[in-house]
Write a structure and sequence with these properties.
The chain is mainly alpha-helical. It contains five helices and no strands. Helix 1 runs parallel beside helix 5 and helix 3 packs antiparallel against helix 4.
């Protein structure tokens, strides 16, 4: 039985040369798609049963479903593109479109919010921290950082699911929501 060791720091350095043409296992991406669908379903049920604020529904639902369905859709995209394109083109198209989609979500959310000052400190931190994630995806879309394409894409998917999970927790723990009426 041969033992393999974990890669050392030199294997993780910026001079890493991962062959992006190797076949990737997209099972982790499919798992993220499953989680995103489940999260969107739970959010829909909670909103129908609990939340009555119309202003929140317009802004919150767009962001929640945009991030969760976006994560689901983009989790499945590389597997589909891998059947149609070579590896480099697949990662460039997938990361580029995902980056543009994520940027559009940020712009949409902030334009509906009408002021960046109306964000809570956590929302502001999430918004500002989203720009490097978007930038990394767009960089891969432009052909840079190709040896990290798989990891950057994975980070983007987890980022979207994390945002949806954060907003889901805000709905669950929102004290301003009307409690269901008791019979």
């Amino acid at each position: 039985m041969r033992r393999t060791s974990l890669p050392g720091p030199s294997a993780l350095s910026s001079t890493r040369s991962t062959d992006i043409s190797q076949p990737f296992d997209f099972e982790a991406y499919r798992t993220i798609a499953d989680i995103s669908v489940a999260l969107a379903g739970f959010i829909g049920i909670i909103i129908v049963l609990q939340h009555r604020d119309k202003a929140f529904l317009e802004l919150g639902l767009t962001t929640i479903f945009g991030t969760s369905f976006g994560a689901m859709m983009f989790a499945l995209l590389p597997d589909l593109l891998a059947r149609l394109l070579d590896a480099e083109a697949m990662w460039r198209v997938a990361c580029g479109t995902f980056g543009l989609y994520h940027l559009a979500l940020i712009i949409n959310h902030q334009s509906k919010q009408r002021s960046i000052r109306s964000n809570t400190p956590v929302q502001l931190a999430i918004t500002l921290a989203s720009f490097p994630v978007v930038g990394l995806k767009l960089a891969v879309g432009l052909g840079f950082l190709m040896s990290y394409a798989y990891e950057i894409y994975y980070l983007g998917l987890l980022w979207c699911v994390g945002i949806a999970a954060y907003l889901f927790s805000m709905i669950l723990f929102d004290e301003s929501a009307d409690p269901p009426e008791q019979a």
